[in-house]
Amino acid sequence: MKRTFVGTAVFALVLAMTAMAQTGSAAGTAAATPSASTTGGSGGVKVGIIDIQQAIIGTNEGARDFETLQKKFEPRRTELSNLNTEIENLKKQLNTQGDKMNEEAHATLVKSIETKQKSLQRSAEDAQNDYQQQSNEIAQRILQKMAPVIDKFAKANGYGLLLDSSNPWPQGPLLWATAGVDLTKIVVDAYNAQSGVAPPPAKPAGAAGAATSRPTTPAMAKPAATTPH
Protein backbone atom coordinates (compact mmCIF):
# COMPACT_ATOMS: atom_id res chain seq x y z
CA MET A 1 0.00 0.00 0.00
CA LYS A 2 1.28 3.41 -0.60
CA ARG A 3 2.15 5.71 2.27
CA THR A 4 -1.08 7.68 1.78
CA PHE A 5 -3.14 5.59 4.16
CA VAL A 6 -0.56 6.08 6.89
CA GLY A 7 -0.79 9.87 6.80
CA THR A 8 -4.58 9.79 7.00
CA ALA A 9 -4.71 7.13 9.67
CA VAL A 10 -1.93 8.59 11.82
CA PHE A 11 -3.82 11.88 11.90
CA ALA A 12 -6.77 9.98 13.37
CA LEU A 13 -4.43 8.36 15.90
CA VAL A 14 -3.01 11.74 16.96
CA LEU A 15 -6.52 13.08 17.54
CA ALA A 16 -7.49 10.02 19.58
CA MET A 17 -4.36 10.08 21.74
CA THR A 18 -4.60 13.85 22.23
CA ALA A 19 -8.12 13.40 23.54
CA MET A 20 -6.94 10.69 25.94
CA ALA A 21 -4.04 12.85 27.10
CA GLN A 22 -6.41 15.72 27.83
CA THR A 23 -8.69 13.38 29.76
CA GLY A 24 -5.76 12.12 31.77
CA SER A 25 -4.55 15.64 32.60
CA ALA A 26 -7.97 16.52 33.97
CA ALA A 27 -7.55 13.89 36.68
CA GLY A 28 -4.67 15.80 38.23
CA THR A 29 -1.74 17.97 37.25
CA ALA A 30 0.76 15.95 39.28
CA ALA A 31 0.07 12.76 37.31
CA ALA A 32 0.82 14.51 34.03
CA THR A 33 4.05 16.16 35.17
CA PRO A 34 7.20 14.22 34.14
CA SER A 35 9.28 12.98 37.05
CA ALA A 36 12.60 11.23 37.41
CA SER A 37 10.84 7.88 37.84
CA THR A 38 9.08 8.15 34.49
CA THR A 39 11.69 9.79 32.30
CA GLY A 40 14.59 7.36 32.55
CA GLY A 41 17.69 7.20 34.68
CA SER A 42 19.38 10.22 33.10
CA GLY A 43 16.41 12.45 33.86
CA GLY A 44 15.55 12.87 30.19
CA VAL A 45 12.25 12.05 28.54
CA LYS A 46 11.84 8.33 27.82
CA VAL A 47 11.42 7.98 24.06
CA GLY A 48 10.15 5.12 21.90
CA ILE A 49 9.36 4.61 18.23
CA ILE A 50 6.53 2.72 16.57
CA ASP A 51 6.25 1.90 12.88
CA ILE A 52 2.54 2.60 12.73
CA GLN A 53 2.10 1.24 9.23
CA GLN A 54 3.91 -1.99 10.05
CA ALA A 55 1.98 -2.23 13.31
CA ILE A 56 -1.32 -2.09 11.43
CA ILE A 57 -0.25 -4.81 9.01
CA GLY A 58 1.41 -6.83 11.73
CA THR A 59 -1.78 -7.29 13.72
CA ASN A 60 -3.80 -10.41 13.10
CA GLU A 61 -6.74 -8.21 12.21
CA GLY A 62 -4.73 -6.15 9.73
CA ALA A 63 -3.19 -9.19 8.07
CA ARG A 64 -6.63 -10.75 7.69
CA ASP A 65 -8.37 -7.65 6.36
CA PHE A 66 -5.65 -6.63 3.90
CA GLU A 67 -5.44 -10.15 2.54
CA THR A 68 -9.21 -10.10 2.05
CA LEU A 69 -8.88 -6.76 0.25
CA GLN A 70 -6.18 -8.12 -2.05
CA LYS A 71 -8.39 -11.07 -2.99
CA LYS A 72 -11.33 -8.74 -3.58
CA PHE A 73 -9.34 -6.83 -6.20
CA GLU A 74 -7.94 -9.88 -8.00
CA PRO A 75 -10.74 -9.91 -10.63
CA ARG A 76 -10.08 -6.25 -11.45
CA ARG A 77 -6.35 -6.89 -11.74
CA THR A 78 -7.05 -9.78 -14.09
CA GLU A 79 -9.47 -7.69 -16.14
CA LEU A 80 -6.95 -4.88 -16.53
CA SER A 81 -4.15 -7.29 -17.37
CA ASN A 82 -6.27 -8.88 -20.08
CA LEU A 83 -7.16 -5.50 -21.53
CA ASN A 84 -3.52 -4.47 -21.56
CA THR A 85 -2.60 -7.68 -23.38
CA GLU A 86 -5.33 -7.02 -25.93
CA ILE A 87 -3.95 -3.53 -26.56
CA GLU A 88 -0.42 -4.82 -27.00
CA ASN A 89 -1.62 -7.42 -29.50
CA LEU A 90 -3.42 -4.73 -31.51
CA LYS A 91 -0.27 -2.63 -31.53
CA LYS A 92 1.74 -5.55 -32.84
CA GLN A 93 -0.86 -6.04 -35.53
CA LEU A 94 -0.60 -2.37 -36.46
CA ASN A 95 3.19 -2.49 -36.59
CA THR A 96 3.37 -5.63 -38.70
CA GLN A 97 0.34 -5.15 -40.96
CA GLY A 98 -0.31 -1.41 -40.89
CA ASP A 99 1.49 -0.68 -44.13
CA LYS A 100 -0.56 -3.31 -45.94
CA MET A 101 -3.95 -2.02 -44.76
CA ASN A 102 -6.15 0.33 -46.70
CA GLU A 103 -6.71 3.76 -45.18
CA GLU A 104 -10.07 2.91 -43.61
CA ALA A 105 -8.86 -0.31 -41.94
CA HIS A 106 -5.75 1.43 -40.66
CA ALA A 107 -7.76 4.29 -39.17
CA THR A 108 -10.21 1.86 -37.56
CA LEU A 109 -7.39 -0.10 -35.90
CA VAL A 110 -5.69 3.06 -34.63
CA LYS A 111 -9.00 4.31 -33.22
CA SER A 112 -9.61 0.99 -31.50
CA ILE A 113 -6.21 1.11 -29.83
CA GLU A 114 -6.69 4.67 -28.63
CA THR A 115 -10.15 3.91 -27.25
CA LYS A 116 -8.97 0.84 -25.38
CA GLN A 117 -5.97 2.72 -23.99
CA LYS A 118 -8.22 5.43 -22.58
CA SER A 119 -10.50 2.80 -21.11
CA LEU A 120 -7.54 1.01 -19.52
CA GLN A 121 -6.21 4.21 -18.00
CA ARG A 122 -9.56 5.20 -16.54
CA SER A 123 -10.21 1.72 -15.16
CA ALA A 124 -6.72 1.49 -13.65
CA GLU A 125 -7.09 4.88 -11.96
CA ASP A 126 -10.54 3.97 -10.63
CA ALA A 127 -9.24 0.66 -9.27
CA GLN A 128 -6.25 2.31 -7.60
CA ASN A 129 -8.44 4.97 -6.00
CA ASP A 130 -10.94 2.38 -4.77
CA TYR A 131 -8.17 0.22 -3.35
CA GLN A 132 -6.52 3.15 -1.62
CA GLN A 133 -9.79 4.32 -0.12
CA GLN A 134 -10.60 0.90 1.26
CA SER A 135 -7.03 0.53 2.57
CA ASN A 136 -7.43 3.84 4.40
CA GLU A 137 -10.69 2.65 5.93
CA ILE A 138 -9.05 -0.53 7.25
CA ALA A 139 -6.09 1.40 8.65
CA GLN A 140 -8.23 4.03 10.37
CA ARG A 141 -10.50 1.41 11.92
CA ILE A 142 -7.56 -0.50 13.37
CA LEU A 143 -5.79 2.65 14.55
CA GLN A 144 -8.87 3.86 16.39
CA LYS A 145 -8.67 0.67 18.44
CA MET A 146 -4.87 0.71 18.66
CA ALA A 147 -4.67 4.21 20.12
CA PRO A 148 -5.87 3.17 23.62
CA VAL A 149 -3.42 0.23 23.57
CA ILE A 150 -0.51 2.57 22.83
CA ASP A 151 -1.71 5.09 25.38
CA LYS A 152 -2.00 2.46 28.11
CA PHE A 153 1.42 1.00 27.35
CA ALA A 154 3.14 4.40 27.24
CA LYS A 155 1.69 5.52 30.56
CA ALA A 156 2.37 2.20 32.28
CA ASN A 157 6.01 2.26 31.18
CA GLY A 158 6.79 5.92 31.70
CA TYR A 159 7.20 7.03 28.10
CA GLY A 160 7.18 10.76 27.57
CA LEU A 161 7.43 10.73 23.77
CA LEU A 162 6.56 8.24 21.02
CA LEU A 163 7.50 8.82 17.38
CA ASP A 164 6.11 7.22 14.25
CA SER A 165 8.90 5.61 12.20
CA SER A 166 6.72 4.64 9.22
CA ASN A 167 8.17 7.32 6.96
CA PRO A 168 11.96 7.71 6.90
CA TRP A 169 13.52 11.14 7.18
CA PRO A 170 13.09 13.67 5.60
CA GLN A 171 9.47 12.64 4.89
CA GLY A 172 9.05 11.72 8.55
CA PRO A 173 10.35 13.18 11.83
CA LEU A 174 12.71 10.32 12.75
CA LEU A 175 16.33 10.72 11.68
CA TRP A 176 17.94 7.83 13.58
CA ALA A 177 17.12 5.40 16.39
CA THR A 178 18.48 2.20 17.87
CA ALA A 179 16.54 -1.05 17.63
CA GLY A 180 16.18 -1.04 21.40
CA VAL A 181 13.63 1.80 21.34
CA ASP A 182 11.41 0.19 18.68
CA LEU A 183 8.11 -0.74 20.33
CA THR A 184 6.30 -1.93 17.21
CA LYS A 185 6.23 -5.64 18.07
CA ILE A 186 5.23 -4.94 21.66
CA VAL A 187 2.28 -2.84 20.49
CA VAL A 188 1.27 -5.47 17.92
CA ASP A 189 1.37 -8.25 20.52
CA ALA A 190 -0.67 -6.18 22.97
CA TYR A 191 -3.23 -5.37 20.29
CA ASN A 192 -3.53 -9.01 19.22
CA ALA A 193 -4.06 -10.12 22.80
CA GLN A 194 -6.87 -7.59 23.21
CA SER A 195 -8.53 -8.04 19.81
CA GLY A 196 -9.05 -11.79 20.08
CA VAL A 197 -8.53 -12.19 16.32
CA ALA A 198 -6.76 -15.45 15.52
CA PRO A 199 -3.47 -15.39 13.59
CA PRO A 200 -3.83 -15.91 9.83
CA PRO A 201 -3.11 -19.41 8.49
CA ALA A 202 0.56 -20.21 8.01
CA LYS A 203 1.89 -19.30 4.57
CA PRO A 204 3.76 -21.76 2.32
CA ALA A 205 7.54 -21.53 2.61
CA GLY A 206 7.83 -19.55 -0.63
CA ALA A 207 5.39 -16.93 0.61
CA ALA A 208 6.97 -16.44 4.01
CA GLY A 209 7.81 -12.81 3.32
CA ALA A 210 4.32 -11.90 2.19
CA ALA A 211 2.89 -11.78 5.70
CA THR A 212 5.19 -8.96 6.78
CA SER A 213 5.26 -6.91 3.59
CA ARG A 214 3.48 -3.59 3.43
CA PRO A 215 0.22 -3.61 1.50
CA THR A 216 0.53 -1.95 -1.86
CA THR A 217 -1.83 -0.63 -4.44
CA PRO A 218 -2.68 -3.49 -6.80
CA ALA A 219 -0.38 -3.70 -9.79
CA MET A 220 -2.79 -2.24 -12.30
CA ALA A 221 -1.76 -2.39 -15.92
CA LYS A 222 -1.13 1.00 -17.48
CA PRO A 223 -1.23 1.86 -21.17
CA ALA A 224 2.09 2.09 -22.88
CA ALA A 225 3.26 5.51 -23.96
CA THR A 226 3.74 4.46 -27.55
CA THR A 227 1.41 6.32 -29.90
CA PRO A 228 -0.12 4.27 -32.74
CA HIS A 229 0.89 5.38 -36.19
Set down the secondary structure blueprint.
Elements: H1 4-26, H2 29-32, E1 47-50, H3 52-58, H4 60-97, H5 103-156, E2 161-164, H6 184-195
Parallel strand pairs: 1-2
Structure keywords:
single chain; 229 residues; mainly alpha; two-stranded parallel ribbon; 6 helices; 2 strands; disordered C terminus
Characterization of the model:
This protein has 229 residues and is mainly alpha-helical. It has one domain (4-204). Helices cover 60% and strands 3% of the residues. The chain is built from six helices and two strands. It is elongated, with a radius of gyration of 25 Å.
Number of strands: 2
- Indicate the structural class: mainly alpha
The parts where pLDDT drops under 50 for at least 5 residues are: 6-42, 208-229
Q: What is the overall shape?
A: elongated
- Beta-strand share of residues: under 5%
Strand line-up across the major sheet: 1-2
What is the element string, with H for helices and E for strands? Answer: HHEHHHEH
